[in-house]
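REVIEWER CHECKLIST
Item 1: Sequence provided? yes
Item 2: Single chain? yes
Item 3: Sequence as submitted:
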Amino acid sequence: MNPNRTPGVMSALPSLALLLVALVILVPDRGALAQAVEGRELPVHRIPNIGMAAEFYFSPDGRSIIGTAKRAGDDNFHVYTLNIDGTDIRRINDRGEDACSYFFPDGKRIVWTSTRDRLDLPKGNYSDPLDYPQGAELYTSNLDGSDIRRLTNNSLYEAEVSVSPDGQWVLFGRQTNGKMDLWRMRPDGSGEVQITRMDGWEPGGAFYMPDSRTILFRAWKTADQGRRGLPMTLFTIKHDGTELRQVTHDEGTNWAPFPAPDGRHFVFVKVLPPRNYEIYLGDLQSDAQIRLTYSDAFDGFPAISPDGRWLLFASSRDSKPDERLLTLYLMDVSSLNLGRPGSR
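Item 4: Structure as written out by the authors:
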């Protein structure tokens, strides 16, 4: 999950806004509401100042975000935090190369991946499962990068990290002897539990649903690894390893899922022919899929704000065609009513 990947802002027409208001009143099914906006993008704006960046996630209050960026003076990608208006940009770590990161739900600490203490090992490549950095370890720290505490200490790849909404579990991916699986542990690094045991599959990119027990993730077949246009499938599983359920059923690439606060919907990336990465809204109750982005550029790494108002994503839509550099955007999805039930 590494970023080595004239904004066309589109505004909803007044008539569309009126239609959405009517649908909120008349149609309780949020899937039907989502269908009302299919065919056009909801309002999008670029987050300024951060530059090359991808895979960012919201703070518990929705006012700031955390993720990896490569800014002026950086030799590698590092973890940064910033406000959603592009102010107060802070680098958390400056050693090694960083990857996935996440806020704890109390808003006081963060968890992140880095090779900072295993510079003796081959650098590897966060984007290549056949060459993942075996020195990638998990750390927690304060919001300013102070009080760093190392959670893992081995020569394995450990990344793709997130935290349960109740703050009780750190969820992550671990590669052992070339095989990926999902694991969880306590915030202090104790109590490790292996969650998945999927023979022939490589699970990862996992997040807890709002119930702090159900996990949404993607996986690909081990036999397909290294294949161009790698097919991926979305699943849910209970964090005790039971109730594995396949969510997507097509043969394409379904990637980077992230749950909505309502506990029913989720966003994810679908790759359309020939290589067009677009963001979709999925529904765990109906299996409906609604397209949210419409760009020939790369759109990916989606995340929804805790109040359900914003979709945060990375896109190359402002980049030169021959560069396809990613930066961050916000889409106003408040009309889709994805917040926690009873919050609106």
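Item 5: Key structural point noted by reviewer: Helices lie at 14-26, 30-35.
Item 6: Recommendation: ____
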